């Protein structure tokens, strides 16, 4: 079983989601459905009863690009506080301190929201034996994100950060591993010298897979681009991307890491089976 730990299911039209999930299941794939704001998670959860089993793992998130003014942020944080009592998957959360994004959502507001999310997660995690898993966006901010995680950290026992499309420094990567964190490997990481060095540096039992697909919200077109075709093509793309990523990882590291990834999927997400599923 291959697990896409960072997928944007909500970027597919509702009518295509069931077809997509049936298609991924047939290919030996499951996805963790990240959300951009907590109320988006609530909407997906309400829809999930219509999906084929086993369906997506739903993650409650508050993406830094989508943090509004303080009143909006506080209302969404209240939704998240309730949601983390029903799901232990949290994402997409984090910081984006690139100039354009920090101008749109000031650094102080981003940091305040992320700290509040971590507070809520750690309160909820104290009451459950299974780890909470965070999918973390960290653009030009890995050191700041790691400072916040360390301030809330427990060595990866109850809360495990997974940095999505990791782009920090080698020292940041060492800090992440030491605090019990993981890296979800996006194909783009494998196309750069730095990314390839990082995926060799990470211990095999801290590697996970991701696609970050779809890259943008998808719209239904006229036939033959209806919900069935859109859902089926999206499932095929995710499965092919995951399989290609695994193959490239194994080649770069000169070792077969599929069993290590499968064990980490099982430990963090409860996903059974190896990563040799049909793709």
Automatic annotation (TrEMBL):
SUPFAM superfamilies the UniProt entry points to: Metallo-dependent hydrolases
InterPro entries: DNase_TatD-rel_CS, Metal_Hydrolase, TatD-like
UniProt KW Hydrolase keyword: yes
Any one GO MF annotation of this record: hydrolase activity, acting on ester bonds
UniProt entry tagged with the keyword Glycosyltransferase: no
UniProt keyword annotations, A-Z: Hydrolase
Transmembrane segments: none
Protein name per UniProt: Deoxyribonuclease
């Amino acid at each position: 079983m291959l697990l896409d730990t960072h997928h944007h299911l909500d970027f597919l039209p509702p009518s295509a989601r069931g077809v997509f999930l049936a298609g991924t299941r047939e290919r030996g794939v499951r996805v963790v459905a990240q959300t951009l704001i907590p109320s988006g998670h609530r909407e997906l959860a309400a829809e999930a009863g219509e999906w084929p089993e086993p369906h997506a793992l739903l993650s409650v998130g508050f993406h830094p690009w989508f943090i509004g003014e303080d009143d909006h942020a506080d209302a969404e944080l209240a939704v998240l506080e309730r949601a983390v009592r029903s799901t232990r998957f949290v994402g997409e959360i984090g910081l984006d301190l690139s100039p354009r994004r920090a101008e749109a959502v000031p650094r102080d507001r981003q940091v305040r929201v992320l700290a509040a999310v971590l507070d809520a997660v750690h309160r909820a995690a104290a009451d459950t034996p299974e780890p909470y898993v965070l999918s973390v966006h960290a653009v030009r901010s890995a050191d700041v994100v790691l400072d916040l995680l360390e301030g809330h950290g427990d060595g990866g026992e109850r809360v495990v950060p997974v940095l999505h499309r990791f782009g920090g420094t080698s020292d940041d990567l060492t800090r992440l591993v030491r605090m019990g964190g993981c890296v979800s490997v996006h194909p783009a990481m494998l196309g750069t010298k730095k990314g390839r060095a990082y995926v060799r540096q990470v211990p095999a039992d801290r590697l996970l897979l991701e696609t970050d697909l779809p890259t943008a919200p998808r719209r239904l077109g006229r036939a033959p681009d209806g919900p069935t075709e859109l859902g089926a093509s999206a499932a095929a793309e995710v499965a092919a991307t995951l399989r290609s990523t695994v193959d490239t990882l194994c080649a770069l590291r000169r070792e077969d890491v599929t069993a290590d990834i499968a064990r980490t999927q099982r430990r963090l997400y409860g996903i059974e089976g190896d990563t040799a599923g049909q793709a």
